[in-house]
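User: Please predict the structure of the protein below. I'd like the answer in structure-token form so I can feed it into my own downstream comparison script.

Assistant: Understood. Taking the following sequence of 210 residues as input:
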Amino acid sequence: MSAPDPLSALTDALLDSYAECGGINHIDGVNLPSKPVVAALTEEILHLLFPGFYAGRPICGKEMPGLVLETLRDLRPKLVEEIGKSLDFAPVPGLTAEGEADFFLAQLIPVRTILQTDVEAAHAGDPAAGSTEEVILSYPCIEAIAVYRLANVLYRRQIALLPRMMTEWAHSRTGIDIHPGATIGSHFFIDHGTGVVIGETCEIGRNVKV
């Protein structure tokens, strides 16, 4: 007689647990956004926001048209898929994944405009900052604020799940917790940001240093 398979018994026990603790299961439901995919998407978008800072190699100006187009072509279908999963989870009348992906990508230009003011504020607001390059490369607040400003675009469009996933990814990397629903004006700087929490209902004006 063969010995009992301990994994079979564990399988049965886990299935019983799934039945008893159903609040932390997501079985037979809609497909949810993927945490690793959303993390990779967010980092890829940071490449577009700060060209040359995330590449790991020198970027020549003549490369930029092809590089940007290639990145957008790679990014768009993945963004459509993750936004689509969010809309399946919490539909918003009149919104489509394709339309929201295109709207979001179009907002990269105004997001870059306001991020430049944030970098300038960090450089001006910290006597220890030697250059804007140092600020972008080494100040956690820049990444946290950049991801917040991206996530805020989706939040304002009522896209579920995705904005929080993006800002929590940034939180895990930077120690700075900014809810995507917060309202934050231009020229924003967080100095020594570890442990800073900015909640959903927080309203911060222009030229603020925390």
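That's the full token string. Helices lie at 6-20, 35-49, 64-89, 97-106, 108-125, 132-138, 140-156, 162-174.
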